Amino acid sequence: MSGLWGRLLWPPLAAALMALIIWPVFGPVSALLFFGGFVLLLWLRHAMHLNALICWLRAAPGTEVPEASGVWDDVFSVLYRSGRLRSTHQDELSAVLERFQRAAEAMPDGIIMINEAGQIEWCNPAAEKQFDISNQRDHGQRLSYLVRQAQFTEYLVANNDGEPLVMKSARNTDLTLSIQLVPFGDRQKLLLSRDVTQLERVETMRRDFIANVSHELRTPLTVVGGFLEGFADAEQVNMEQSRRHFQLMLDQTRRMQGLVDDLLTLSRLESNQERISEETVDVKSLIETLHKEAISLSAGRHRLNLEVHTDARLAGNERELRSAFGNLVSNAVRYTPEGGEIVLRWSLKDQEARFCVQDSGIGIESQYISRLTERFYRVDRGRSRETGGTGLGLSIVKHILTRHQGHLEVESTPGKGSTFCACFPIGRVIVPDQPRNR
After folding, report:
1. Among 145, 143, 158, 150, which Cα is nearest to 193's?
2. Are residues 320 and 378 located together in one domain of the fold?
3. What is the pTM (predicted TM-score) of this model?
4. Phi and psi dihedrals of 114, rounded to 5?
5. Which residue has the higher pLDDT, 27 or 272?
6. Which residues pair with residue 110 across a beta bridge?
């Protein structure tokens, strides 16, 4: 007999053999007393080691292993190695869990772990912000009690794991979330949430863009098509009347051509991520040219003044800057009533180069100013069409200024007029006979 069983049975067997040897010499009583005493000592020894084992198991991790002998030394050694191995595995699992939680906390998407009963077990900071919940305060709470939205509750109850749900946040109507349930573990689930507000906004802009382009093209196409149908059906052509019709068709064709040109310009500006081709732009000469063009466009209906307070030039693309400045000037001429005043001003102010167009036109309400650079946005759609605007001019201005690290400032008072300023950083300013500032 070997191994653990041999080491356990050998001492009592040896004691029994000694008792048999003692029996013939000292009698049965002595033999039994010897065997009983040996068994008692052996029991006390095991009891002491068993008590030491219980105390050691109850002690804090890392407590020194009790001293033992015989088979108990093997028992303590096996338990110690097993404990070390289990502790190592627990440390590894804890490290993995900690890395997972840190990674989940750093994710921009929300993650909520919910159990079979729909109770929150853990959530990351993004989910706390998106659903206005707390990982500590709301642990163990039912998620459907905290997020009281009918469509959200129905989605949780339906257990529709494959289909995401897009919904508006009840606490923040400007926030749009895409949520999805993912099963994992023992009947647990992960609720993943993503902020898709910007994607929804882009999709809305795309739909509006298509609708606006279609609407803008429908009117001139209807006019041109109507006249052409009239010519096709007419048996005789009245040349005087036809000239008026031709002029109207020409006007509508130019309107469509202007819209297409602006769309192509805007598309080129939005898709061009390369560095602009820079040159030294003589702004003074440029705005003098624009001033003459504005006088021609105004046809004597406005007072146009030019104020040049600096000879500073700009580092940039002259064609793009001419387009941006030209849009600001033409808008002022279009929206300023007859007899009004328009001022073109070029100056250096507050470490910025500023080209400003000030008019005494109809002005703009403050709540509309932030939306002026949206494509096809018009405060007064009817008036814009009457003056020949496409609704894309300020969008083009915004993109050009952004490509030149500039920005557009708008100040307006209804009934008194508006001031549109194209502002450029001092780093793009080139003062004659001085090196460019960087």
Report:
1. 143
2. yes
3. 0.52
4. -125, 145
5. 27
6. 193
Q: Which token pair is 51?
A: 């008590």
Within 8 A by CB and 6+ apart from 263, the residues are 213, 392
Radius of gyration of the chain (CA): 43
Q: Which of 235, 255, 271 is the last residue of a domain?
A: 271
**Helix ranges restricted to H, 336-429:** 366-369, 381-386, 393-403
Mapped onto helix, strand or coil, the DSSP state of residue 349 is strand
User: For 375-409, what is each residue's pLDDT tens digit?
Assistant: 666 665 444 444 455 667 788 888 888 888 899 99
Domain carrying residue 208: 201-271
Beta-bridge partner residues of 314: 281, 429
- Token pair in block for residue 9: 């049975």
DSSP 8-state secondary structure symbol assigned to residue 321: H
Q: Phi and psi (nearest 5°) for 389?
A: -80, 150
CA nearest neighbour of 357 among 389, 382, 390, 334: 334
Q: Which of 213, 193, 61, 57 lies closest to 133 in space, CA to CA?
A: 193
Judge contact between 193 and 155, C-beta under 8 A: no
Task: Extract the tokens encoding 394.
Answer: 């300020």
Angle between helices 28-58 and 71-106 (to 10 degrees): 10
- CATH code assigned at 387: 3.30.565.10
Same domain for 264 and 342? no
Side-chain half-sphere CA neighbours of 82 within 13 A = 7
Q: ∠260-266-272 over CA atoms, to 5°?
A: 130
CA nearest to 250, candidates 273, 227, 272: 227
Token look-up 């001492």 returns: 11
Number of domains in the chain: 4
Smallest CA-to-CA distance from 131 within 114, 161, 188 is with 114
Give 229-268 pLDDT, tens digit per residue. 777 777 666 677 777 777 777 777 777 776 777 677 767 7
Q: Is residue 435 part of a domain?
A: no
Last residue of a domain, one of 234, 253, 271: 271
List the beta bridge partners of residue 353: 348, 424
Q: Token pair of 50, please?
A: 């068993």
In a domain, 9, yes or no: yes
| CATH code (residue 254) | 1.10.287.130
